[in-house]
C-alpha cells in the first residue's frame, strides 16, 4: 500500500536538500522528519519553516543516537531549547517503558542511562 501511495504521489520521500524553497500546504504524511537528531540546526529550521496552511509537521529522533561529527550541534536538541513553550508546538518524550522491541532492549537502555549519568 505504501508503494502504491508513493507511485500515486500521495507520499513523497525527499531529502532535506530538496526542501528549500518549498511550502507544504495541506500536508501531513510527507512533512515528517525521521532521525532528526542527525540534522544540523540550519536543516531543522529549514524543515520546520516549510510548514504551510492546513499542515502538520512531525519530527522524530533519539538524542542518544546522534551520528553527527563530534562537537557538531544537533538540530533536534537545539530545536527543543528554541521552541519549548512556543504555542502550537508540543514535545513528546519516550523512555525505556515505551520500547516495543525485545524486553531486554528496555533493560539495555536503562543500563546505558545509568552508565552515562553523572556521579553524585
TrEMBL record:
Keywords: ATP-binding, Cytoplasm, Nucleotide-binding. GO terms for molecular function: ATP binding. This is PhoH-like protein. It comes from Fundidesulfovibrio putealis. It is found in: Cytoplasm. Residues 2-113 form the PhoH-like protein domain. Belongs to the PhoH family. It comes from the Bacteria. GO terms for cellular component: cytosol.
Amino acid at each position: 500500500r505504501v508503494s502504491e501511495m508513493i507511485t500515486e504521489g500521495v507520499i513523497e520521500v525527499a531529502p532535506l536538500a530538496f526542501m528549500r524553497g518549498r511550502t507544504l500546504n495541506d500536508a501531513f504524511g510527507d512533512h515528517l522528519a525521521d532521525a532528526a537528531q542527525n540534522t544540523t540546526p540550519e536543516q531543522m529550521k529549514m524543515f520546520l519553516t516549510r510548514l504551510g496552511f492546513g499542515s502538520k509537521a512531525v519530527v522524530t529522533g533519539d538524542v542518544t543516537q546522534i551520528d553527527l561529527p563530534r562537537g557538531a550541534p544537533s538540530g533536534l536538541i537545539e530545536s527543543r531549547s528554541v521552541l519549548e513553550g512556543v504555542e502550537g508546538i508540543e514535545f513528546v518524550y519516550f523512555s525505556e517503558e515505551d520500547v516495543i522491541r525485545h524486553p531486554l532492549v528496555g533493560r539495555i537502555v536503562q543500563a546505558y542511562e545509568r552508565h552515562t549519568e553523572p556521579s553524585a
